[in-house]
Amino acid sequence: MKISVVIPAYNEEENLPEIAARVKEHLPGRYERELIFVDDGSTDGTQRILRELRAQDSEIHYVLLSRNFGHQSALRAGIDYATGDCIISLDADLQHPPRLLPELLGHWLNGYDIVYTQRADDERLPWLKRQTSAAFYRLMNSLSSVDFEPGTADYRLIDRRVAEAVRNSPDVDLFLRGFVHWVGFRQKRVAYTPDARFRGKTKYTVRKMVKLALNGITSFSVRPLHFATLAGMGISVLAFLYALYALYILVFTQDAVPGWASVLISVLFIGGIQLLVLGIMGEYLGKLFVQAKQRPPYLVRETDPGLADLRPVRP
Ligand code: UDP
Ligand code: MG
């Protein structure tokens, strides 16, 4: 039985030795283990530390990406290289406590294919982060057909079969949280209280969060497009009624005052809706565009010699 642990790291030099030690401490040594660190184009000493860790410990591996491809792509790279019977992913900053590892493994041994974790609402997290996270899950759930549970980030265990589905998915921008829900299989939830970040500060900028949220919504739902259609129909009906009313005023009454207010309001309103609908269309069109180019989700610059390349040949 072999267990793979995938840890994406973007400028996490101060956290790496600690997370490696803690993961090994909590993973029973009787299993074959492999820790795969994915350096997501870090600009600090992450790469050097990874080489050092690798030199000291043959269970540690690294994949260096050619630039910063983002957390989701880094995760995917790690999954692509992992050879274990199950694959556990967690953040490098120790917010995902390694003490849960035995519990995750236990559920897997009992027959679950996906063991995912749910973070309890943590008072210590910044207010804005909590609010945006909660709003994100509310929006996702109202817009998509997949049920997303709040606080389920990328700390999870997946069986080899699920990893195979991830590898074979042709999505260029795979939204793992949604995908892992979508695949089905036997799933088990584990609740936990997150720890504070060990060192350094968050690598998820507001820009990266917005990108992730938009990707999540457009990956798992076409409801926004329905909304565009519905809004278009509703406004057309209203516009038609208003036109009838205007005709009535013009033909049957004497007070056809040049009503600039109503004209202004309707023009602004319809203009706004048009822009919104165009924007929604653009989001999906952009997604199709990116997907049509069939670029790989990440590029690898180097791996340590001990790592076999299992990456599927993507179209
Ligand atoms: N990360 C990454 N690439 C990025 C941003 C983040 O690989 O472009 C990694 C980061 O090193 C960490 C994990 O993703 O291991 C989660 O990031 P972070 O802890 O900064 O996010 P937060 O916990 O603040 O949401
Ligand atoms: Mg973190």
For the structure shown, list the relevant keywords.
10 helices, binds uridine-5'-diphosphate, 315 residues, binds magnesium ion, alpha/beta
Outline the structure in words:
- This protein is an alpha/beta fold and 315 residues long.
- It contains ten helices and eight strands.
- The chain has an eight-stranded mixed beta sheet with strand order 7-5-6-4-1-2-3-8, sandwiched between helices.
- It is elongated.
- Magnesium ion (MG) binds next to loops.
- Uridine-5'-diphosphate is lined by residues 8-10, 12, 40, 68, 70-71, 74, 91-93, 95, 202-204.
- It comes from Hymenobacter sublimis.
- The chain crosses the membrane at residues 227-251, 263-285.
- Residues 4-138 form the Glycosyltransferase 2-like domain.
- It is an enzyme of class 2 (transferase).
- This is Glycosyltransferase.
